[in-house]
């Protein structure tokens, strides 16, 4: 496999870690059962994609990539501040919607940046983008 494949998979890995961590940060603040369910389903889907990503990276001899520690710290601070100021399902939906938008934008950019990535790596990236779009759609009514 080529360098584009590894690079795209590493960015997918990082995005998956960020998404799962962000969902973990807000999940306990979600009051509505349907919102909690949507978050949990998305988290599980991300974890499954993370397993596929890890398997491919292992096969290529590359470790997984965690989310950037600075981005993760800033996200955690923003999440906790917003939830402290206004703990509500609307705040949870707002935070997750913003995170999904950033994930969609980043993954789309990486798909364009690494055009020679394998079909399997591109498929994982596309599934991640679709998952983020689906979650955004499902929780929009809580905004």
Strand content: under 5%
Can you tell me the CATH class? Mainly Alpha
Radius of gyration: 15 Å
The helix fraction, in percent, is over 70%
Look at the helices and sheets and give the structural class. mainly alpha
User: How many structural units, i.e. domains?
Assistant: 1
Q: Can you give the mean pLDDT? A: 96
* N-to-C SSE string, H for helix and E for strand: HHHHH
User: Do you know the CATH architecture?
Assistant: Up-down Bundle
Q: Tally the helices: what do you get?
A: 5
Let me know the largest β-sheet.
Answer: none
The CATH superfamily is Ferritin, core subunit, four-helix bundle
CATH topology: Ferritin
The total count of strands amounts to 0
Unreliable spans: none
Distance between the termini: 42 Å
Global morphology:
elongated
Task: Provide an overview of this structure.
This protein has 143 residues and is mostly helical. The protein has a single domain, classed as Up-down Bundle (Ferritin). It contains five helices and no strands. The chain has helices at 3-27, 33-59, 69-85, 89-113, 119-139. Helix 4 (89-113) packs antiparallel against helix 5. The model has no long low-confidence stretch (mean pLDDT 96).
List keywords for this structure.
143 residues; mainly alpha; Ferritin
Brief write-up:
The chain has 143 residues and is an all-alpha fold. 80% of the residues lie in helices and 0% in strands.
């Amino acid at each position: 496999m080529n360098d584009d494949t590894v690079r795209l998979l590493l960015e997918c890995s990082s995005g998956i870690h960020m998404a799962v961590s962000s969902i973990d940060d807000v999940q306990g603040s979600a009051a509505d059962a349907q919102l909690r369910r949507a978050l949990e389903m998305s988290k599980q889907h991300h974890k499954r994609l993370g397993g596929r990503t890890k398997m491919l990276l292992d096969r290529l001899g590359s470790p997984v990539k965690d989310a950037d520690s600075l981005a993760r710290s800033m996200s955690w601070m923003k999440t906790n501040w917003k939830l402290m100021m206004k703990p509500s399902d609307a705040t949870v939906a707002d935070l997750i919607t913003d995170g999904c938008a950033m994930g969609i934008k980043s993954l789309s950019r990486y798909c364009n940046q690494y055009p020679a990535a394998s079909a399997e790596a591109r498929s994982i990236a596309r599934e991640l983008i679709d998952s983020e779009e689906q979650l955004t759609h499902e929780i929009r009514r809580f905004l």
